[in-house]
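B., you asked whether I could sanity-check this one before it goes into the benchmark set. Here's the sequence:
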Amino acid sequence: MLDLKVVRSDPEAIAAALARKGHRFPIEQFIDLDSRRKAADMRSQQLLAERKAASKKIGELVGQGMAVEDAKAEVNTLLERIAAEIDGATADAKAAQGAIDELLQSTPNVPDSQVPAGASEDDNVEVARWGTPRVFDFEPLDHVDIAEGLGQLDGDAATRITGSRFAVLKGGVARLQRALTQFMLDTHTERHGYTEAYVPYMVNSQSLYGTGQLPKFAEDLFKVQGDDGYYLIPTAEVPVTNIARDRIIEEQELGADGIRMVAHTPCFRSEAGSYGRDTRGLIRQHQFEKVELVQLVRPEQSAQALEDLTGHAEFILEALELPYRKVILCGGDLGFSSALTYDLEVWLPGQSAYREISSCSNFRDYQARRLQARWRNPETGKPALLHTLNGSGVAVGRALVAVLENYQQADGSVLIPEVLQPYMAGQTRIS
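And here's what the prediction gave me:
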């Protein structure tokens, strides 16, 4: 959530920045609500002063010749009126503040000055490219045809078991997905210094509010039936980042580079509004897996932390020898809670296109304010908001797709990348 003091100090500047995200911030509504809240608070303070003065009035009235009982009755009547007016002013202030909170809860984060203008993913700006797409001496297949040709992807079974946008993997392809997961976790923990976390796959609404999925994106979530109000996680970002909710992290725990955590989880998304897009295969499913990177850092560290985190995801793709490009998201494609995002897009020969495989974002203090995730600044001795970041390191299902398509052979087999072979018991090919 945005800092109310910052919004209040210059709502026009906030509106101009949010316009780059395609969001219209209601300046007049905000100013009106804030004026109502301020007026109600001032009225409440005035009434409290009147009540304090009124309580001394009995003696004055008696001194002017009024009977004690009459003086008490008159003052009590006055105090009752003031009390009713205080209740009204307090209710008005609370209502105005509630409306302000609701408005800010649905207001996205302000984009960084580096974010390019643009309305959609077509306006994202490429900043780097690694690797050269392979030139095939045969017509490359997409991952569905490859895996079905191997007899190791069964979409029909998944449809019978559950419905559309699910998959059953078998044999070497299923093991390849597990190998990718283990390789990513080992790399991020042993090479990049992340602490592995195992977290719940269901969360409460407060957790989703903290990271920004609620209230705005409820339709994208799967809510669990029952009275507990649980939701299936759309990404490990939610439970991992919420580890810091309502906490003050001491300097010693934060460490020199902040806190780094990595988690492998299934993810569940309704994909509302995406009908007709990527309905074939593993690209856009209701259930998929990711290895998620989360960092909690001091405010002055978050810019560099984003570069580091993105580099950690890039390392995975380079180790797998998968060509990719790095883009900075334009305002219109930038996520609700993000101030700055890099997308890594891997080359898929079956589509002759680069497709997103990791999204790495700096949220600054936007999530931390909603979460009340803080650290104790040793210079002041006082709590201050952390900066939060996350990114896929990387999406396991899409990495599987990329390996199948980039390592396919003319005979229908798939070579196994060298770094994955130790996780496949030395196997070098899926046939």
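One thing to flag: The chain has two domains: 26-105, 121-430. Otherwise nothing jumped out at me.
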